[in-house]
């Protein structure tokens, strides 16, 4: 079977979760000897699988009638707190994503919330729920990676490091991260991420002002290449994810797979998504309290590591690859009832 996997994120600034999901989906498929993968190529496959949603997706998929799959990493609500004047743009964005989903013959919803959203839009396309896979071995930490990561960040071996990852926009909770960090000066706080969409990012001046006035123990690296993230995760002790809206976010799962506690914001998406318990905070005060406890309570830290280990079991790559193959086989041979 030949799968044509497409994402225009390959040609853009790559500091975003959609690109990471695309890269890891390609890696997942290439592990199988009986699958040939075309990536953004000119060749023709048996199946078209798009991960992005711009003009390139429509152009590359135009010749694949009845053989198109789209993984819905983004929903209309994702623009809330991401783009300036999102309230004015929302009706247009909603209309556009209906076109994106309708273009596909199968839409893969990466979370229950994504599935619900697409159903509410009244899309006639078939919807299949398949989570983003976590390539557990890829993120596993060791001492050499930890050392390399701390050298890259310019931090000492004895520093306690609290990490955040995401675009510098209001939706990701970066301002809350700064508030939490200011309350815990005894640790180093590092935020990895920038603005792939440049000036078309919500709160750019407001957030820049907060970054400029942040204390010295708070560091902002900008966008880092995906290849560096393994050692960045390995360098950290705690991961905070204060985002206000997500679908099936990769960064906290990658952090959990690397072997550290992860504290999420308590939002409805995760209640629907996660099958196993996870650490959650309702506001910055709770984030501060839990972070301090992880820094000073070794037993609590150990328990939190177990929570991370159990959390990622739901996203086993082998199980998810088999689910993808079922979708592919159904489109290649419609008489096979696997969906």
Question: Could you characterize the architecture of this molecule?
Answer:
- This protein has a 6-stranded parallel β-sheet with strand order 2-1-3-4-5-6, sandwiched between helices. A 6-stranded parallel β-sheet has the order 9-8-7-10-11-12, sandwiched between helices.
- The model has no long low-confidence stretch (mean pLDDT 92).
- It has helices at residues 17-30, 55-61, 86-103, 112-120, 136-139, 143-153, 174-182, 204-213, 229-235, 251-258, 268-273, 284-296, 298-311, 317-332; strands at residues 2-6, 36-39, 47-50, 68-72, 106-109, 126-129, 161-165, 188-192, 218-222, 238-241, 262-265, 279-281.
- α6 crosses α9 and α7 packs across α12.
- It starts with a strand and ends in a 7-residue tail after the last helix.
- The chain is 43% helix and 15% strand.
- It has 14 helices and 12 strands.
- By secondary structure, the protein is of the alpha/beta class.
- The protein folds into 2 domains: 2-133 and 316-332, Rossmann fold; 136-315, Rossmann fold (3-Layer(aba) Sandwich), CATH 3.40.50.
- 42% of the residues are buried.
What is the terminal separation in angstroms?
A: 18 Å
Strand content bin: 15-25%
Largest sheet: 6 strands, parallel
The share of residues in helices is 40-55%
Broad shape: globular
List the total number of helices.
14
Mean pLDDT equals 92
Instruction: Assign the CATH class of the largest domain.
Output: Alpha Beta
Name the structural class.
alpha/beta
Give the second-level CATH assignment, the architecture of the largest domain.
Answer: 3-Layer(aba) Sandwich
Order of helices and strands: EHEEHEHEHEHHEHEHEHEHEHEHHH
Q: Structurally, how many domains make up the residues?
A: 2
The stretches of 5 or more residues where confidence is low (pLDDT under 50) are none
């Amino acid at each position: 079977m030949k799968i044509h996997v497409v994402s225009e994120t390959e040609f853009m600034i790559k500091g975003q979760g959609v690109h990471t999901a695309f890269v890891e989906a390609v890696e997942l498929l290439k592990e199988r000897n009986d699958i040939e993968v075309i990536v953004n190529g000119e060749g023709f496959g048996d199946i078209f699988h798009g991960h992005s949603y711009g003009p390139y997706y429509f152009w590359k998929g135009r010749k694949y009638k009845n053989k198109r799959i789209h993984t819905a990493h983004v929903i209309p609500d994702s623009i809330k707190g991401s783009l300036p004047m999102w309230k004015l743009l929302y009706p247009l964005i909603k209309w556009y994503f209906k076109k994106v989903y309708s273009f596909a013959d199968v839409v893969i919803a990466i979370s229950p919330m994504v599935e619900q959203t697409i159903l509410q839009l009244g899309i006639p396309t078939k919807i299949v729920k398949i989570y983003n896979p976590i390539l557990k071995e890829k993120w596993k930490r060791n001492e050499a990676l930890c050392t390399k990561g701390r050298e890259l960040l310019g931090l000492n071996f004895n520093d306690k490091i609290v990490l955040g990852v995401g675009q510098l926009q209001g939706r990701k909770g970066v301002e809350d991260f700064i508030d939490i960090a200011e309350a815990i000066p005894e640790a180093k706080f590092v935020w990895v991420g920038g603005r792939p969409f440049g000036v078309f990012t919500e709160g750019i001046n407001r957030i820049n002002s907060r970054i400029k006035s942040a204390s010295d123990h708070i560091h902002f690296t900008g966008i880092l290449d995906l290849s560096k993230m393994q050692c960045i995760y390995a360098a950290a002790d705690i991961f905070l994810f204060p985002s206000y809206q997500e679908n099936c976010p990769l960064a906290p799962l990658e952090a959990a797979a690397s072997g550290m506690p992860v504290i999420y914001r308590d939002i409805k998406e995760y209640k629907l998504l996660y099958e196993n318990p996870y650490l959650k905070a309702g506001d910055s005060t709770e984030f501060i309290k839990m972070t301090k406890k992880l820094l000073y309570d070794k037993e609590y830290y150990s328990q939190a590591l177990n929570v991370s280990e159990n959390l990622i079991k739901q996203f086993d790559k082998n199980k998810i690859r088999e689910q993808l193959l079922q979708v592919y086989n159904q489109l290649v041979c419609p008489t096979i009832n696997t969906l």
